[in-house]
Amino acid sequence: TPGGLDDEAASTLGSAFMGNEKYADAEGIFRELVANQRRHPKVGPGTSAFVLLGEDLRRQGRNDEASAYFREELERQLKAPDTDSSAIASTLSYLAAAQGMMGHGAEADSLMQRAYELYASVSPIQFQRVGRGTMLANRAELAARAGDDTKATPLADSARAMWKGTLPPGDARWAALARVDALILRDHHQPAAAVARLTAMLDTLRNKAHPNLYTYRRTEMALADVYDRWGQPDSAAAHRAFARPGAPLRLASASMMAVKP
After folding, report:
1. CA atoms of 88 and 85, how far apart (whole Å)
2. For 123-168, what is each residue's pLDDT tens digit?
3. What count of other Cβ atoms lies within 10 Å of the Cβ of residue 60?
4. What is the model's pTM?
5. Distance (Å) of CA 221 to CA 78, 100, 105, 243, 251
6. Is 2 left (phi over 0), alpha (psi -120 to 50) or beta?
7. How far is the C-alpha of 221 from the C-alpha of 152, rounded, in Å?
8. How far is Cα 221 from Cα 240, in angstroms, rounded to an integer?
9. How far apart are the first and last CA of the chain?
């Protein structure tokens, strides 16, 4: 194992690297863990090395490679007796995210629906509601990005209802619905409202003691898309720069820029 660490410690270290956008460092650790799991196959509690490596690759934009690891883990899980349904649902959701980034919207949506169904058997109930709500929110964002507001809106409403009273208000997963709201507002010719919605969410994410950097970057990219759509390439470029891994988190005072009607 990396540096003589046991698998659990190495997994924790690699996850910390990934959370801090040190993707190359995390990849090295996760590849060693995958090699170890192949030598000593097992499916147990905790996130597998295959999923961790796949997610690290996905965050680097290497979605083909990531999908291969997610599929390998899914095959391992389905072959193992008594695999927890939440673990399978989680792997399906990771694979769906990679497929969505590759433009395979129909497959991504189908995978999320399968995950949603599996989360129905998860207990306790609050875990079930968070998992199912996350799949609804992700499907809503997928539809909104495809310009299908008639599909995105009810999915987003269902996600809100599922999360209400269960998911804490400051949880980073709410950012998915902020992005959905902004995309719909953008498509309905309300760019100023879209900018305000994303700006508020970015302020929330940035002000956390330990910001979720990946979610922050995705939300910055959504803001760049809004400015791009409405003919403000300079503002779009500025926010696209903030969306890159390693970029500083911008000041709240810089969040709002003028939007042409």
Report:
1. 5
2. 899 999 999 999 999 999 999 999 999 999 999 999 999 999 999 9
3. 17
4. 0.92
5. 35, 16, 19, 5, 16
6. beta
7. 19
8. 6
9. 57
Dihedral angle, C-alpha 181, 184, 189, 192, nearest 10 °: 20
Cβ 145 vs Cβ 97: under 8 Å: no
What pLDDT was estimated at residue 253? Answer: 43
**pLDDT tens per residue, range 10-60:** 999 999 999 999 999 999 999 999 999 898 887 666 789 999 999 999 999
Distance CA 60, CA 70 (A): 15
pLDDT digits (tens, 9 = 90+) for 85-132: 999 999 999 999 999 999 999 999 999 999 999 999 998 999 999 999
Phi and psi at residue 22, in whole multiples of 5°?
A: -95, 70
